[in-house]
């Protein structure tokens, strides 16, 4: 069995194993035939063939026997038949020159850190090196993790294409979908997926190599994986079945991985790939723009009208900003204009693009896209057809902007070279091209995301307006100008309460430099920073804080404990979450009943309860896991599965009709009113209404399933204000959770019912109890009139609730279907902060459920003598009144517990 392992095969000297020798020869034979088949010109440039054959004999003979066991060199060389043009493009990547060095380091070390700038070819090429070196033969797998789903999908597609392999063989697996099969040899996945796999197979025995890509992004899961793999790799080595770990990162803060004795006893070697990065001239603004979207607009316009060819990449912070700027730019530089666009140009020149009259300039994006596609199709044939572009459409250039203004240097980091300057002046007078403006953010549908990789219609300039997704993981071709707002949007959590808020902050210096680097991929580039160098120097942090130190770690703590990692405080994190974070996560898990209460104050070894294990089996947050674990009664599971799927996905219900940038805002008000009406209808009556916002989601998902099976999903989502991508994701999660439940409870035979009837009144009531069971610490009680002090403004306290676990009041949001009803007791899914603290996902509960479903926070006083016990007809029991408080809700409630 040992000889079967590709890592071990190469260790045998040729005289020791005749079968291995055969394999070796086979391998070489195939190499030769591959050479013959391919265009010889291309292949002769390829260092691959020599490297592989040379390395095999060298290594096998020269290494002493003992060491060779770990320092393995697979004997097989697996040929890949690439197309000539792809091979040529590969050869231009800087990493290709380093193949031999990289592979030697990997063969000789269990762990290697590979650092290189974005675009140097790490993600697409290293898996191919490994494949060719035999790491995927004999049924072994090469695993690559990505922090972002977009990257996992697009990279697997790209690598499959480069290698001329099927998506069965180079596949991806993300939380709800994938195309991985038995035949998969290279598997791209999100880091969360690999963590789940470790739970079922701690040694990852299927894999011969794990590549942790984009480690510099410091996502929670990648951080944990590094810690876990630092233990798994030596274990696998000890068992004679070595696993290689490759940590790939941009050249940022590598010490966290390398100079960290808790992680790796001996520092892993760091290989740096020199990237072919052209110089990027950085231009700081004199003044830091407050309205950076407007500033980005004017800077982009100036670049487009005055500077030579080359794509523009604009960095903003979020979806809404991106869409807004895309709309503005499309209007300013349209593909078709009735009135020749001069109006737009004039408004621009007056410095006020907003006031432009929309009716005058016709924006015909659909048509433009159609034309571009048509042109592309034609181009693929022999005929070259330019899309219809009206070159007269733009003759006026903003006159008040001198070049110096445009460049806006405040620290003379260099100007545009003189020949470019000439061009610049020339272009200043020339007519203006249309601009091919595309948005890019993570919530954008995947097919729209993929558009940025395609060349723009001929004769137009590409402009991508992006959030920080374009910072490192995706390389957009042909970018020459970067416009950087210097900001990013992060979700900040309160360490103790878990309250979250999106805040726009300065990005780090490292991130700003990454962004600038995007301009130097094709040739010398320019980066326009919409902030001053003083702000950059004084206010930007060197690096961003790793995600693990920013987020609540409930999920992580439970998953790790369920893996028998008892003392999570001692876990070798590259950068550990702080103790307050761990303690509050632990506390929430104890309240949930997933962890046992710690025995002492400084005890970190609390164990997972049986309920906790059940919860951790589900790939959702612990709260939702508990809801699933408790629903095995009264036919509730189909509903809980559906509700949990919906609650696990962000931003399902749209607030305003901004579905895409193409949508015009005309009917916005009318449409919104329609959506609200539908949501009210979905909320229903009685217990259904009291189930509140989750009820709306339940109905929305049920109806989408129905629409989806008839192929009408997109329209349905648009008509009802649902985010299409979210709904698609929910549908997938619903299937996955259904399968998961069936695995745990095989007798149930649960299926996804496209005609699921709404829950009955009794079921809706039980679902409300289940919501409470999942969120026992997120109970809130309405602030009563008599609680408000005399001198205070009553209106200020309208819709205010007192929480169990927080001192500040929270408010019922206007988007909640329960706002009008304003029930006395509620549970909420989360609190987010905008102008006030608002509850999201609100369900009404009854106070008498609290002792049963949320006992930990109840402080009950002894039963009162008055009023006397009474007979409850519904239960047939004698009940008595009990008063008490719940958490920090300083109010008395009355409940009727069993005697
Ligand atoms: O991982 P790293 O950032 O080092 O580079 P990569 O993602 O492997 O990309 C290497 C090259 O392949 C870049 O120049 C990309 O532009 C190109 N590429 C592409 O043309 N199409 C893709 N779908 C992915 C990468
Ligand atoms: Mg990469």
UniProtKB/TrEMBL annotation:
Domain Helicase C-terminal as annotated: residue spans: 364-564
Keywords in alphabetical order: ATP-binding, Helicase, Hydrolase, Nucleotide-binding
Compositionally biased tracts (Acidic residues): 18-41
Region of interest (Disordered), ranges: 1-68
This protein's record includes keyword Nucleotide-binding: yes
Domain Helicase ATP-binding: 103-270
Enzyme Commission identifier(s): 3.6.4.13
Name of the top EC class for this enzyme: hydrolase
UniProt-listed Gene3D superfamilies: 1.20.120.1080, P-loop containing nucleotide triphosphate hydrolases
Transferase among keywords: no
Pfam family, one: HA2_C
Family: Belongs to the DEAD box helicase family. DEAH subfamily.
Name of this chain's protein: RNA helicase
Natural source organism: Periplaneta americana
């Amino acid at each position: 069995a040992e000889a079967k392992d590709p890592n071990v095969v190469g260790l045998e000297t040729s005289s020791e194993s005749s079968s291995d020798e055969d394999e070796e020869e086979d391998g070489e034979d195939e190499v030769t035939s591959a050479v013959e088949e391919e265009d010889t010109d291309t292949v002769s440039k390829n260092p691959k063939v020599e490297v592989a054959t040379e390395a095999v004999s060298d290594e096998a003979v020269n290494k002493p026997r003992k060491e060779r066991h770990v320092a393995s060199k697979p004997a097989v060389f697996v040929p890949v038949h690439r197309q000539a043009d792809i091979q040529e493009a590969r050869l231009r990547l800087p990493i290709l020159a380093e193949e031999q060095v990289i592979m030697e380091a990997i063969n000789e070390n269990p762990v290697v850190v590979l650092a290189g700038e974005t675009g140097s070819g790490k993600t697409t090429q290293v898996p191919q090196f490994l494949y060719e070196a035999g790491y995927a033969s004999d049924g072994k797998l090469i695993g690559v993790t990505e922090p972002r789903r977009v990257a996992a999908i697009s990279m697997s597609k790209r690598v499959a294409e480069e290698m001329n392999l099927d998506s069965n063989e180079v596949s991806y697996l993300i939380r709800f979908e994938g195309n991985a099969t038995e035949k998969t040899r290279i598997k791209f996945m999100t880091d969360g997926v690999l963590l789940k796999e470790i739970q079922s197979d701690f040694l990852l025995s299927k894999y011969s190599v794990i590549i942790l890509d984009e480690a510099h992004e410091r996502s929670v899961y990648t951080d944990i994986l590094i810690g876990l793999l630092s233990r798994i790799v030596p274990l696998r080595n000890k068992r004679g079945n070595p696993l290689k770990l490759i940590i790939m990162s941009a050249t940022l803060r590598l010490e966290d991985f390398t100079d960290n004795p808790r992680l790796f006893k001996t520092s892993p070697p760091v290989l740096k790939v020199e990237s072919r990065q052209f110089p990027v001239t950085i231009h700081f603004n004199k003044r830091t723009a407050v309205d950076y979207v407007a500033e980005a607009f004017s800077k982009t316009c100036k670049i487009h009208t005055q500077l030579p060819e080359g794509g523009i990449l604009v960095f903003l912070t979020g979806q809404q900003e991106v869409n807004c700027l895309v709309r503005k730019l499309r209007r300013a530089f349209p593909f078709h204009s009735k009135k020749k666009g001069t109006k737009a140009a004039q408004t621009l020149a007056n410095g006020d693009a907003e006031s432009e009259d929309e009716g005058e300039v016709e924006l015909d994006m659909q048509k433009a896209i159609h034309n571009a596609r048509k042109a592309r199709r034609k181009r693929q044939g022999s005929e070259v057809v330019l899309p219809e572009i009206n070159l007269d459409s733009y003759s006026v250039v903003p006159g008040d902007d001198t070049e110096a203004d445009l460049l806006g240097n405040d620290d003379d980091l260099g100007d545009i070279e003189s020949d470019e300057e000439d061009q610049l002046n020339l272009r200043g007078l020339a007519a203006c091209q249309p601009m091919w403006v595309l948005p890019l953010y993570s919530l954008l549908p995947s097919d729209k995301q993929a558009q940025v990789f395609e060349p723009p219609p001929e004769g137009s300039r590409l402009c991508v307006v992006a959030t920080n997704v374009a910072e490192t993981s995706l390389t957009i071709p042909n970018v020459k100008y970067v416009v950087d707002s210097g900001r990013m949007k992060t979700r900040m959590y309160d360490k103790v309460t878990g309250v979250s808020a999106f805040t726009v902050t300065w990005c780090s210096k490292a991130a700003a430099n990454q962004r600038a680097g995007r301009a130097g991929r094709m040739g010398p580039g320019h980066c326009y920073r919409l902030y001053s160098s003083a702000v950059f120097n004084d206010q930007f942090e060197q690096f961003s804080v790793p995600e693990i130190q920013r987020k609540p770690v409930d999920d992580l703590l439970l998953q790790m404990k369920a893996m028998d990692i008892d003392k999570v405080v001692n876990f070798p994190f590259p950068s550990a979450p702080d103790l307050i974070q761990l303690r509050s996560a632990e506390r929430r898990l104890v309240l949930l009943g997933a962890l046992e209460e710690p025995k002492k104050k400084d005890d970190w070894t609390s164990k997972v309860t049986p309920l906790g294990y059940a919860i951790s089996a589900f790939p959702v947050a612990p709260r939702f896991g508990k809801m699933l674990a408790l629903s095995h009664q009264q036919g509730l599971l189909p509903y809980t599965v559906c509700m949990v799927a919906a609650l696990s996905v962000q931003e399902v219900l749209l607030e305003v009709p901004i579905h895409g940038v193409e949508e015009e805002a005309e009917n916005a008000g009318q449409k919104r009113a329609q959506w609200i009406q539908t949501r009210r209808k979905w909320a229903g009556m009685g217990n259904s209404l009291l189930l509140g916002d989750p009820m709306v989601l339940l109905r929305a998902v049920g109806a989408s399933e129905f629409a989806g099976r008839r192929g009408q999903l997109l329209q349905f989502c648009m008509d009802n204000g649902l985010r299409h991508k979210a709904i698609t994701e929910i549908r997938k999660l619903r299937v996955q959770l259904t399968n998961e439940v069936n695995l745990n409870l095989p007798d149930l035979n649960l299926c996804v019912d496209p005609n699921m009837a709404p829950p009955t009144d009794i079921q809706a009531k039980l679902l409300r109890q289940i919501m409470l069971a999942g969120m026992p610490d997120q109970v809130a009680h309405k602030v009563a009139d008599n609680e408000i002090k005399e001198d205070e403004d009553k209106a200020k306290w309208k819709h205010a609730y007192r929480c169990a676990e927080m001192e500040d009041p929270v408010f019922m949001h206007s988007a909640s279907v329960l706002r009008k009803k304003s029930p006395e007791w509620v549970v909420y899914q989360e609190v987010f902060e905008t102008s006030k603290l608002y509850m999201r996902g609100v369900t009404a509960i009854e106070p008498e459920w609290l002792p049963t479903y949320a006992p930990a926070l109840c402080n009950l006083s002894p039963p009162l003598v008055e009023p006397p016990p009474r007979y409850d007809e519904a239960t047939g029991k004698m009940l008595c009144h009990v008063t008490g408080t719940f958490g920090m809700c300083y109010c008395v409630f009355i409940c009727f517990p069993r005697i």
